[in-house]
Amino acid sequence: MAMLAQTADLNHSFARYDQPVAVNRVPEVTPSFWLIKLMAVTMGETAADYLAVNLGLGLTATSLLMTAILAGALFLQFGQKRYVPWSYWLAVVLISIVGTLVTDNLVDNFGVSLVTTTVFFTLALAATFATWWATERTLSIHEVFTTRREAFYWLAILFTFALGTAAGDLVAEQFGLGYLGTGILFGMVIASITAGYYFLRLDGILAFWIAYIFTRPLGASFGDLLSQPVEYGGLGLGTIVTSAIFLAVIVATVVWMSVGRAHDVKAR
Predict the structure, then answer these.
(1) Closest C-alpha among 117, 122, 95 to residue 107
(2) pTM, full prediction
(3) How far apart are CA 98 and CA 101, in angstroms?
(4) Could you state, in order of their start, the residue ranges of all structural domains in the chain?
(5) Would you call 140 helix, strand, or coil by DSSP?
(6) Residue-wise over 73-103: b if at least 16 C-beta within 10 A, else e?
(7) Cα separation of 171 and 188, whole Å?
(8) Helices 204-227 and 147-169 meet at what angle, rounded to 10?
(9) pLDDT tens, position by position, 2-50
(10) How far is residue 46's CA from residue 227's CA, in Å, rounded to a whole number?
(11) Residue 23 contacts by C-beta under 8 Å, 6 or more apart in sequence?
(12) What is the pLDDT of residues 165-202, one digit of tens each?
């Protein structure tokens, strides 16, 4: 009987090891994560302006084109079933552009006020989180193991970008703080969230999503500060130069992350 019990235990152990290990499909939150995310949202603002204005495509055509490209990028990302730096950050850059265009379309093409869009996307994001929690009982970014959780994750990110665009434009334009003042304001908000997480035991998931929302207007404000003409309160670098600078930083960071990840895999 004892031998049978031991055999059963061994079989159970082998069965456990034979089961596939759940792999998180999104990156861990590190300083490099926030660096590239900030670069991505900044480029999203300037690239959207370049495509819609400088190339003369207009908001509607640009939105349709970039939405189609984003759909293709997300198809690639969902097919990975794990975190792959290039496909993940490609999706982030594209969803940043599309999120900006969604808000710009509502405001410029349909005449929806920035106050209304800010409230609307706040409610849409809250509804996404509520549905995500009701379905999965977690909002953790450390446990995005399934396609359904990843779908909630990307939907939430889309709404954070749209909300961040609306909130940033509301503060910079209607409240009259300007690009630099808006950037400083949202930088202080993010700093306070960081302090709350490290010193006041603010919940990590809550801190992450709040910071994720506010990095969007932070990056957009500094993107506009660099790219917009001097007469409009910018430094006049233009959308091409500004987008190229941040794209170069993004590519360099993704390459560095990919090489480091490959080295870690070999080391195992």
Answers:
(1) 117
(2) 0.84
(3) 5
(4) 30-267
(5) coil
(6) bbeebeeeeebbbebbbbbbbbbbbbbbbbb
(7) 14
(8) 50
(9) 443 444 444 444 444 444 567 999 999 998 899 889 888 888 778 887 8
(10) 7
(11) 81, 82, 83, 145
(12) 899 888 888 888 888 888 899 999 999 999 999 999 99
DSSP 3-state assignment of 1? coil
Contact between residue 242 and residue 45 where contact means Cβ atoms under 8 Å apart: no
Please give the C-alpha separations between residue 56 and each of 59, 68, 110, 179, in angstroms, as whole numbers: 9, 18, 19, 24
Rounded (5°) CA angle 163-168-173:
130
Neighbour-count burial of 233, counting CB atoms closer than 10 A to its CB (0-12 exposed, 13-18 middle, 19+ buried): middle
The three-point CA angle 147-152-155 to 5° equals 120
Among 196, 217, 200, which Cα is nearest to 208's?
Answer: 196
Largest CA distance in the chain: 88
Do the beta carbons of residue 120 and residue 93 sit within 8 Å?
no
Where do we find the tokens 């809550």?
206
